Amino acid sequence: DGGITQSPKYLFRKEGQNVTLSCEQNLNHDAMYWYRQDPGQGLRLIYYSQIVNDFQKGDIAEGYSVSREKKESFPLTVTSAQKNPTAFYLCASSPRVTGELFFGEGSRLTVL
Amino acid sequence: GIQVEQSPPDLILQEGANSTLRCNFSDSVNNLQWFHQNPWGQLINLFYIPSGTKQNGRLSATTVATERYSLLYISSSQTTDSGVYFCASNYGGSQGNLIFGKGTKLSVKP
């Protein structure tokens, strides 16, 4: 089935550690996105990529990094520089023409 | 940038009731989507509706772009409709860069 796969679904890390969240899509979408959601809040854009080997910062990029080496994959690294990393992270993709977003199931990160 | 405001923030319904959720946006847009976030956190696409009216079963949506609002109608609500409903609208050059409202939390009681 076509879709967006995020892993892991749950992740715990100690302060000071980097962690990488995986996002893979087989929808043949050009664009991919990472959003962050905090409890009781809407989603905020971290990074997005409209084409392979290119990506742009969103509203809250500090403390995060991404890469886009393949069309299907857009991993997100939460670095130790991110001051409040505990959150729900959602990956999305869209066809470039319409921009209609489709989301994965999310990854819940907890920093201990 | 674009502001997206949703109302009401919370809504409690008896099963079988109808409801209307509203989304106001502050600037002209060419991408407007409605999502349902289920209790497990997954965001489900409901409608991609930059303008006009669409229907899907008990749900329908209308966007009046010239007046900068969109409405989501839920008829004959069911307990499985519970969750948070988000509208989102784009900004900037990329159509997919969406700004999300804070959501409407819907609870449908049996």
Q: Low-confidence parts of chain B, pLDDT < 50 over ≥5 residues?
A: none
Order of helices and strands of chain A: EEEEEEEEEEE
Biggest interface goes to: A-B, 27 and 22 residues
> In percent, how much strand structure appears in the residues of chain B?
over 45%
* Structural Rg of chain B: 13 Å
Give the helix tally of chain A.
0
Determine the strand fraction of chain A and express it as a percent band: over 45%
Given helix and strand content, the structural type of chain B is: mainly beta
The description of the largest β-sheet of chain A is: 7 strands, mixed
**Based on DSSP secondary structure assignment, what is the total number of beta strands of chain A?**
11
Coarse morphology of chain B: globular
Number of helices of chain B: 0
Global morphology of chain A: globular
The span between the termini of chain B is 41 Å
Q: What low-confidence regions of chain A span 5 or more consecutive residues with pLDDT below 50?
A: none
How much helical structure, as a percent, in the residues of chain A?
under 10%
Average pLDDT taken over every residue of chain A: 93
End-to-end separation of chain A: 36 Å
In terms of quaternary structure, the protein is heterodimer
Radius of gyration of chain A, whole Å: 13 Å
Biggest sheet of chain B, open or closed, and with what strands and sense? Answer: 6 strands, mixed
Description:
The complex is a heterodimer of chains A (112) and B (110). By secondary structure, chain A is an all-beta fold. Chain A contains no helices and eleven strands. In chain A, strands 2, 4, 5, 6, 9, 10 and 11 form a seven-stranded mixed beta sheet that branches. A four-stranded antiparallel beta sheet of chain A has the order 1-3-8-7, with no helix packed on it. With 110 residues, chain B is mostly beta strands. Chain B is globular, with a radius of gyration of 13 Å. Classes of the chains: A mainly beta (112), B mainly beta (110). At the A-B interface, strand 4, strand 5, strand 9 and strand 10 of A face strand 5 and strand 9 of B.
